[in-house]
Every structure is written in C-alpha cells, then in structure tokens.
Design goal:
240 residues; mainly beta; Protocatechuate 3,4-Dioxygenase, subunit A; 9-stranded mixed beta sheet; two-stranded antiparallel ribbon; 4 helices; 11 strands; globular
Length: 240
C-alpha cells in the first residue's frame, strides 16, 4: 500500500484560525501536524452491507417515534447520488446523517438551546447507497438555532453527513444547507471557506419532481468525491 499525503488547500478549505468564528481560535491546532501510516484495523473491514440497515433507518420521522406519532415540523425528502469525478456511482457507501429538530434543538445533553426536545424525533439516520449510488432520507426540515459567537449568532438550517467507504478509515464529513436560506451568507462557519464554488457544493437544491406523487418538498444533494467539482468536506479534500 502506498500512502499519499495531500496538503491542505488554503483556497478551498476553511481557515483554521478564523476570527469571525470565535471557537476556531480556541480549537485550531498550534503545532505542525504529525502524519503516520494507517494500521491494518483502519484499512481493512468491516465491509458495510444492507444487512445492518433496519427498515426505518432512513426514515427519521418514524425511527424514534412513539406509537407511530410523527414529529413536529415540515416533512421533507433529502436524496441524491454519490459519484466519483467521472460520474461513476459509488455503491455500498454507508451514509449517516444527524440534525436538529424543527425547533433547532439536538437530542444531546450538551445542547443548551432553550428550544424544546421533540419526543418523537432523534434526528439521526443511515442508508447504504444503491448500485447506482443513490440514497434517500425522509426527515423533518431542521430549524436554525442560536449559538454564542460574536454575541449571539444563528446557524442556518443544515444536516450533517458522514460518508463511509469500505472501512472505518475511509470517512468523509460534511454539512448540507438548504437553497434559499438567508442565514447561509451570514454564517461565520460557512464564510470560513474562502472559495465560493466550495461553499456552493454544500447547498442542496429544491426539487419539484415529487410535488404531486408524494406531496413532500424534496431537496437534492449530490456528493462528488473527487475532481474539480467535488463536494467540500471538513476533514480532507480528496474523496474515498
């Protein structure tokens, strides 16, 4: 195995120490990075397959509900395709998502937002891509939420994506935003990315093809793993 180390690209990656995003000044590394080879545990197994997926794992409106009670909020579909730079589909990739509820509250003990927890919504799901690279989730449109930064600022509506390849060592993390959300342009986390094309790769598009059949708003979020049109990822530029 030949390991290729890829330098951080300051033109597309977020600035590590970005004053407008206050927490980055506290969390940004002060010392040079140390690179080391992967171990056999990281580059082998487990191989993900659909046997680990439950029938409701990709339906966030039901996978935590009590007595099939739907969570509060606007029910939507989030779907898309994972591909490489040549539009070849990525089959068998494990996608995990997590998000706030419709009030902008995470089901997590460290979330200090005063918004209420929804007892029928955990805000997490997973899916394994099809032979053509497709995935789909049914969920609730997340709400924006305040957080302490320069005083109090607001995060746009967003969904976190984690994409695994063939093993745990192949993992990419990103966030999906919603087309038309006015909070995107004012978000310091988004603005820490200097390249406009990289920012745009994180914004889903409203898809009207399912208006009449499923009566749900749909948002399309395609993920490209490599190349000049690749989706921006938090942890490294290159894909799986």
């Amino acid at each position: 195995m030949v390991e290729v180390l890829i330098k951080r690209n300051p033109k597309t990656h977020p600035q590590l120490n970005f004053p407008d995003y206050k927490s980055s000044c506290l969390r940004a590394p002060k010392n040079k990075k140390i690179s080391f080879s992967s171990t056999s545990t990281e580059i082998s197994g487990p191989v993900f397959n659909k046997n680990i997926i439950g029938k409701l794992d990709n339906d966030l409106t039901l996978n935590f509900s009590k007595n099939n009670t739907l969570p509060i909020g606007h029910k939507i579909i989030v779907f898309g395709r994972i591909s490489d730079q040549f539009s070849n589909p990525i089959e068998g990739a494990l996608i995990e998502i997590w998000q706030a509820n419709a009030a902008g509250k995470y089901l997590h003990h460290n979330d200090n937002n005063t918004a209420p927890i929804d007892p029928n919504f955990a805000g997490c799901g997973r899916y394994i891509t099809s032979s053509k690279g497709y995935y789909e989730f049914i969920t609730i449109q997340p709400g924006p939420y305040p957080y302490p930064n320069r005083g109090i600022e607001w995060r746009p509506m967003h969904i976190h994506f984690s994409v695994f390849g063939k093993n745990f060592g192949q993992r990419l993390i990103t966030q999906m935003y919603f087309e038309g959300d006015p909070l995107i342009n004012s978000c310091p986390m988004v603005n820490s990315i200097p390249d406009e094309k990289a920012k745009h790769s994180l914004i889903s598009t409203l898809d009207t093809s399912r208006y009449n059949t499923q009566k749900l708003l749909s948002y399309k979020f395609d993920i490209i793993l490599r190349g000049t049109n690749q989706t921006f990822f938090e942890n490294r530029k290159e894909g799986l």
